[in-house]
Design brief:
This protein has 4 helices and 5 strands. It is an alpha/beta fold. The protein has a 5-stranded mixed sheet, with helices on one face. The longest helix has 16 residues.
Length: 104
């Protein structure tokens, strides 16, 4: 299951050697609901290899602002504390997997 990332726990989440994948979403966002099962699948498949989490943009404005999230869904890829890749919009599972694999 994808980790719930909030304004309060973002620093703990980033304190890892593993790649971090963060899905910025909202309950009212149709495309966010479309990719939600893919994000959950990534969280299960890459458990122990990467940290996969979700940020509800309506409830966590601080972290959403920090990463300049203007459109959702936006999925960012972080390696060593730095954003190294990003996907905006609903895309296929293969895109998410290939971007994550490139960081492992």
């Amino acid at each position: 299951m994808a980790l719930e990332i909030t304004d309060q726990n973002i620093q703990q989440v980033l304190n890892t050697e593993k790649p971090v994948v963060i899905d910025f979403w909202a309950t009212w966002c149709g495309p966010c609901r479309m990719i939600a099962p893919i994000i959950e699948e990534l969280a299960s498949s890459y458990d122990g290899k990467a940290v996969v989490g979700k940020v509800n943009v309506d409830e966590n404005m601080e972290v959403s602002t920090k990463y300049g999230i203007r459109n959702i869904p936006t999925v960012i890829y972080i390696k060593n504390g730095e954003v190294v890749d990003k996907v905006v919009g609903a895309v296929g599972k293969d895109t998410f997997i290939s971007k994550l694999e490139a960081l492992l």
